[in-house]
Hexosyltransferase (Arachis hypogaea), 344 residues
Amino acid sequence: MAAITTTVLLFFIMILYSSTINATTTTTQQRFKEAPKFYNSPNCPAIQQSDKCSDDAVHVAMTLDATYLRGSMAAILSVLQHSSCPENILFHFVTAASSSTSFLNTTLSSSFPYLKFQIYPFHDAAVAGLISTSIRSALDCPLNYARNYLANLLPSCVRRIVYLDSDLVLVDDISKLAATPLPNDAVLAAPEYCNANFSAYFTPSFWSNPSLSLTFASRRPCYFNTGVMVIDLERWRAGDYTTKIEEWMELQKRMRIYELGSLPPFLLVFAGNIGPVDHRWNQHGLGGDNFRGLCRDLHPGPVSLLHWSGKGKPWARLDANRPCPLDALWTPYDLLQTPFALEA
């Protein structure tokens, strides 16, 4: 009996050790393969290497950190692979000021030697005092709120961006999304989901307060996912929308008006006043809900972008040998260099 107990104990120690090694690899020791180089088609406009502000370029903004780096690398590859003008894509990466910028820079340059990109440090102090706890701790990371400050972080000459989360892949040309019109002075565009229960994104305290619920009186608000947005930074700056978002976050600190992280302030400021985008550009929710992250199917209709929003991330489920069927669509973009990969 003692021998069996010792064997079982050693087994669990090995599992714990393996989990620790895997966790360390996930956050600090990831190595990635070099991606192929993709070239412009003949009809692409020429952009000078030094021109960081060209209106002919597609400007893509993403956050970047060690925890989601594997997802970010896959997203970057998917953007380039399906673009008709990949050499005209300029990436703007926002990362926590406390993170190792040199590590991220080296990782990007090694896997994408030809990539045009800039890294911008984001100081947690800018938003830390405004963050309220939400239903999932991962949503409380200050970097999740960096999208509120893109107009301040990026050069003023950058007038329009496509913002992308790190847990998605494109299967279509991003220039189509970037060309989305923004009518009637709309500041941003995103797919809207008007069948979703919009009232559920705010607490009873919000809806029972007339001065607060009247926020939407002149609008027809619908839920939209902030993981895929086309943003006019000139209009954002002119309207000082960062301050408008911060004001709602300050109110949330005084009274609980929502539960879900960085999304509700965007809904409060923009819902009902955004430009339309076809649903094909955000097949979201593939990561399940915010609690269990169960498998989900695609929404009906065509697909240009697959988004694993929710708790379940494809790389985590694959590593745990518990993938969902749709995670196989993410795998071709995974650049992680595994220990068992054959050297070329």
Remarks:
- The longest strand covers residues 89-96.
